[in-house]
Amino acid sequence: MLRVEAAMGIEPPQKLQWRYYRNSCRDAERYVTSQVEFYWKRDKSLAPKLIRMLYADCFVTGCDASILLDGPYSEKTAPQSAGFLGFPMVVIDKIKQILEERCPGVVSCADILNFAARDAAHLAGGPSYPVLAGRRDGMSSSAASLHRGLAIQFHKTGKPDPSMDSSFLAQMREQCPPNSKNQVYLDPDSGSSYSFSKSFYSRVLNHRAILGIDQQIAANNDSSQIAQQYDGSFEDFRKRFALSMSRMGNIKVLTGNQGEIRKNCRVVNRK
Prior knowledge:
The protein is mostly helical.
């Protein structure tokens, strides 16, 4: 098991429990950890993709694994889901298969996703944190729920953010000329290593953020002070990240008789 390094002061929500599967599937978290590590060693992009997948799941209809459901109009089909579902979905499928063989009908896909995101973040250099469990899986998924209307260009003008550092803007224009399909990392400092770091905040403070919405952190006095705090102390950032991930995992969870425990994370159970 991964060591719990942070967020130990979190008060357990009424609905979820610590070591929820200790009697029904004692080694559930160990199985998740083992598989995540196996696949992470083959592709380090697993960590940010699992974290992104968990975010997309929890902030739409709640942490109910609806992001994992297949279907012609499911959340997977929304443009916002492009780029992070393929490889992580294979990993979740494998974990679910193993758990169904050992503890059939016990461990929810929603809990698996929360465990896996925690373990991947830790392998990438982030903190481990307690994942309270007992979530059940949702019964529906709709692409319409993901529509947020984020603009690609600055305020839909087609022009770059005027606050962006001029030398960095020139660098980005060289890497991504008009009509180019080139891709850049949102944090070029960590790049292909996909390592957990605080360099994002250094870039924001130096007006070198890739996205204008990220650069807005420096434009607000309160958020700018937080960025300065995290840029100055990696440990502060690690602790806040752990706390935020734990809290996010508690958003609109289904428990008790709500939802179901899917046998296959891609489809709801047949009645």
